[in-house]
Amino acid sequence: MGQPDDADVDLAVVLHALGDPVRLALVRRMAEHGESACSPDGVDVPRSTLSNHWRILREAGITQTRRVGKARLMALRRADLDARFPGLLAAVLAEGRR
Predict the structure, then answer these.
(1) Residue 3: its pLDDT value, please?
(2) Fewer Cβ within 10 Å of end Cβ, the chain: N or C?
(3) Tens of pLDDT, residues 27-72
(4) Tell me, what's the pLDDT at 32?
(5) Where is the HTH arsR-type domain (predicted)?
(6) Residues 6+ apart with CB under 8 A from 58
């Protein structure tokens, strides 16, 4: 399964994806720094586990992936999420700053 269309993004699936601390850290990193490589510096998770986290984020509709040569770059679908669930991402990201 790839990235869902905007209308197919499900709130329960998004919340489940954001409920994991590693995935939430990846989302916060993208919100702050933009695109992320598939193995970002400072994330102490085995590569296979990290790949699974990226897949869950992508399938939930939270991220999109683009290829640059052999590399894959992940980006937050902020505009799509804000349009589908206004204020959700802002609330989730603000919670981490408390």
Answers:
(1) 65
(2) C
(3) 999 999 999 988 888 888 888 899 999 999 999 999 999 999 988 9
(4) 93
(5) 13-90
(6) 2, 3, 64, 65, 74
